[in-house]
Amino acid sequence: MIGIADTGQAETDLAAGTLTCPRCAGSLQPWGHARARTVRDHGPTTVALRPRRARCRACRSTQVLLPAVVAPRRADTTAVIGAALQASARGIGYRRIAVRLNRPVSTVRRWIRAGRDPQHAGWLRAQAVAWLARVDRDVLGGLAPQPTRLGEALTALAAAALTPAGPGLPARLTVDANRPDHLWPARRVSGASPAGLRFPLCRVLTRP
Ligand SMILES: [Zn+2]
């Protein structure tokens, strides 16, 4: 699976043969589509998508190009799950979060358990720190200490999301200032290419 920030750009890059295979760095070609799926966003909004599938010309493995708005094997958008984790890191209980997001208590509890797992929180933070180390090392020293591992992971992810990509990096991540409860929406910087987003947005809840 490859997480992508901009489906239109990914399509263009796929047609041009400039998207590379995560296994062997061979060139990917279009290979139909994965099954259609619908995920729930904030409130009653749903997002329908049919992710593109690609195949490597060299090793012949196939990859699903999953837009960053959704997490693998989850029925809710990355933004909704991220909002739940943020609220949890601020000390809000899962029952209140479930009411606020209008989701079943059991579902919210599952997300939060996964996010609070020390190994997983450590992994999340490592992803963000690795990104920051590549684009802006100065930010690393300025991260505010947090009382929990999950809080540290989310702070590092938010910092990574706010950091402009340096030269040679394909994309940058931004936090929508109008919707600060929404973590991890991604937008391409105009003119940057290719679109393959290296920062594993889609894997924030699923370790490889
Ligand atoms: Zn390959």
Question: How much helical structure, as a percent, in the residues?
Answer: 25-40%
Percentage of β-strand residues: 15-25%
Q: End-to-end distance, in Å?
A: 9 Å
Q: How many beta-strand runs?
A: 8
Q: Which stretches of 5+ consecutive residues score pLDDT under 50?
A: 165-208
The 3D shape can be described as: globular
Distinct ligand kinds: zinc ion
Number of domains: 1
Side by side, the strands of the main sheet go 1-6-5-2
Order of helices and strands: EHEEEEEHHHHHHEE
* Main pleated-sheet profile: 4 strands, mixed
Cα-based radius of gyration, to the nearest Å? 17 Å
Average predicted confidence as pLDDT: 72
| Secondary-structure content class | alpha+beta
Please work out how many helical segments DSSP would assign.
Answer: 7
Report what the structure shows.
The chain has 208 residues and is an alpha+beta fold. It contains 7 helices and 8 strands. It has one domain. Strands 1-6-5-2 form a 4-stranded mixed β-sheet, covered by helices on one side. 37% of the residues are buried. Bound molecules: zinc ion (ZN). Zinc ion binds next to loops.
Keywords:
single chain; 208 residues; alpha+beta; two-stranded antiparallel ribbon; 7 helices; 8 strands; 38% helix; 15% strand; globular; disordered C terminus; binds zinc ion
List the helices and strands and how they pair.
Layout: E1 2-4, H1 7-16, E2 28-33, E3 37-40, E4 46-49, E5 52-56, E6 62-67, H2 78-89, H3 94-101, H4 105-116, H5 118-135, H6 137-141, H7 149-162, E7 172-173, E8 186-187
Parallel strand pairs: 1-6
Antiparallel strand pairs: 2-5, 3-4, 5-6, 7-8
Zinc ion (ZN) binds next to loops.
